[in-house]
Amino acid sequence: MIEPKDIKVTRPKYSGDVLMSYVLKGIYEQYDVAFPKATLVRNEDGVFYNIEEPDLTKSQRELLMKAYKTLYYTLKPKDLDKLVTTFLDYVNRDRVIGYYVVRDILRYDVLTPLLDDREVEDISFSSVTGADPVFVFHREFGLWIPTNLILNVDEGNALVQKIAFKSGKSITLAKPILDAMTPEGYRVALTYGREVSPTGSTISVRKPHEEVWTLPRMVVEKKVMTALMAAALWFVIQNRGVILVVGRSGTGKTTLINAMLTLVPPSWKIVTVEEIPELRVIFPNWVRLVSRKPTLMTEYNESAEIPPDRLISHTFRIRPDLVSVGEVRSKEEMKEFIHSVAAGHGGITSLHAEDFSSLKARFNYAGIDDSFFSVVSMVVFVNSYTVNGRLVRRVQEIGEVVLKEGQAHYVPLATYSPVTDSFFVDVLHSSRLKTMAATKGMTEGDLKKDLEGKVRFILNSSMLNQEAYVKAIKEYYDSQGVI
Fold this sequence. Notes:
Blueprint: E1 17-23, H1 28-31, E2 37-43, E3 46-52, H2 58-74, H3 80-90, H4 95-106, H5 112-115, E4 120-126, E5 131-138, E6 143-152, H6 153-166, E7 177-181, E8 187-191, E9 202-206, H7 215-222, H8 227-238, E10 242-246, H9 253-260, E11 270-274, E12 286-290, H10 308-314, E13 322-325, H11 331-341, E14 346-351, H12 356-365, E15 378-387, E16 390-404, E17 407-417, E18 422-425, H13 431-439, H14 444-461, H15 466-479
Parallel strand pairs: 10-14, 10-15, 11-12, 11-13, 13-14
Antiparallel strand pairs: 1-2, 2-3, 4-5, 4-9, 5-6, 7-8, 8-9, 15-16, 16-17, 17-18
Helix pairs in contact: 2-4, 3-4, 7-14, 8-14, 10-11
């Protein structure tokens, strides 16, 4: 906890036509304290985000400052909740004082309301002028929006230190870059001071989805792809194929992988490998492996680090049915993923690339020739678009890769048109699906019938809650004779 200096209260700054307004309940509700409020407005200069926090009287402010100083010198992490609750009783459950105690002691100071807004996907701050706004990427509007939370250089530095501390890490002028995960699951990227960012500290926070969306739900509610496209991917997964999910940052790659993992047989052993734990499996037989970076006590000991490629290699020894790697970045990770899926179990991973040419170039640059694509069943390209003024995420293309004279050639099977917000789908002509079906003794007629059954399940299960969905997909596999 950073030693307190003053209590910052964020009040509305921007005026204009109100687009949205809502209360940010966060964890405040469980402590019975006041809530902040978010209001989005539009004026001739654009869209703006206002935070409105409860006003403090002079006596409330003085009481809080005394409490903060006391807590700073006595607080131990294991006693945090107990001490805060005791203090709330001491101030007779004053809801305004309680709000600031929760905000500043339990959470992330002035950044807390933005973290508690479910419509905010990402938060960004960069010290440029010495009094700069925090920006948010809002799910409803699909763009970066300036907020009325203005931070000076000292406030930015203090926030960086606080976020690092709560993540169990350290950031200093000697080591001014930090990538970490907070206890709540926020993915943070920080720089401190002017060592690598000449104008001052920077903060980037990516918030995880609070629930796992099944692929049927994403198909019906989000229209991320058609049911037939989802059925084709399901057929690949069920038959232990390999899928690459490709797109730029912020296009929903991890969300889509999570959704695809809801289609595996519930009895399968699923192994996930990640640097930052974002993948979630709704079935019980799940082994979660997360790479280890040096912590506060071991940051100068290189042997303390366990990189993702070492964990991918470890999956050989634990007999998985499917291995999902959150993202492969380095040459070593790419090569270990290839070795892993070549063993015969299913595999899903994501990569950053714009199109097949850039995807192919990434592998070739890593020293991996085109023969790798012989083990890839399908490639899924994802992107974000603006449709009717709203940000939407769509599967841009699904395709397969065929080798001709040792060279990889991409064949699209389904494509998205942003003009009509519709898909052209031709997955029934997929050579990969036909080969998989033939290996299982299925004719093309059998394949078509299987995909039709999967389409029906997808459409019928889209509204089920997680418990009902798990039961439904287990019944589906039971009917298919899959244990």
